Amino acid sequence: MQGDDQDLRTQDLPQVLVIKPPPLLTLFEDKFMSSKFQLLKAWESTLPLDQFLTTYAGSVRAVLCSGASPITLDIIRLLPSLQLVVTASAGTNHIDLNECRRLGIAVANTAGVFSDDGADAAVGLLIDVLRKISAADRFVRHGLWPSKGDYPLGSKLGGKRVGIVGLGDIGLAVAKRLEAFGCTILYNSRKQKPYVPYPFYTNVHELAADSDALIICCALTAETRHMINREVMLALGKQGIIINIARGAIIDEKEMVECLVKGEIGGAGLDVFENEPNVPKELCELDNVVLSPHRVVFTAEGFIAACELVVGNLEAFFSDKPLLSLVIDE
User: Fold this and answer.
1) How would you classify the pairing of strands 15-18 and 326-328?
2) Does the annotation mark 294 as catalytic?
3) 94 an active-site residue?
4) Taking 60 as the threshold, does the pLDDT of residue 7 lie above it?
């Protein structure tokens, strides 16, 4: 009888639509157990997605998404009762923000949960490229040390001029870490930050020309797509390093590959790519490039904190309380 009562209570809970499970949900589904809502798992249905959404159109007030399940204009139009989109990521480029604004749909993200992990990873990639750590590892593992002798020298991090593109939570955390290594910090952002001591550059071309390395930490928008183009890379120069932990399409990937192959820039550390999970084969053949499968900002600790924030946002919404990490206000 107690189990039946629990099932009835569960049936009465409002449903949160999930089109495809974000990694957070896949790894930590137990963290999404709540007395305030239940998950409506579209990916488990045999119905075509549009038919599934039409079936539940009147009852779905909230959606949980990630980059693997974009909330497009077409999806929003199929959900006339939608009031909240919660993404299991800091980035929101997979959500039609303009349509959400127009309809008064609130959007919440994971805010700064991954900032420290992302900053650690960005610095790690930069050190790896400069000091040739991954390449030296392959050199030893492939048995080349006895036959080829000493490995080529790397380059020192301290004293480098590092340009940060996007001085938000992650960019600022990167800056603080690199200051401790003795680097000089420069930055470009949508607006100048009056509370930081670093020189501000209004455009990335000038920033690149004055930098030994560029670290990309900004959001992907229509304005930032391919912002790091051939001209910017040539300004960075033959010794310059590019680190990207943001979104692949911020860099013109085709031009970057050509610059790397021709030796027009010094190297790259890349966690994100334009056509994931497909990575240009030329990048895999270069020892001055360090690659990661869009995972460097994630840790088990960060995922658990993100789960708590996502669930907290959903529970706040269904309790008529303020959202914890609002991106768009209603």
Assistant:
1) unpaired
2) yes
3) no
4) no
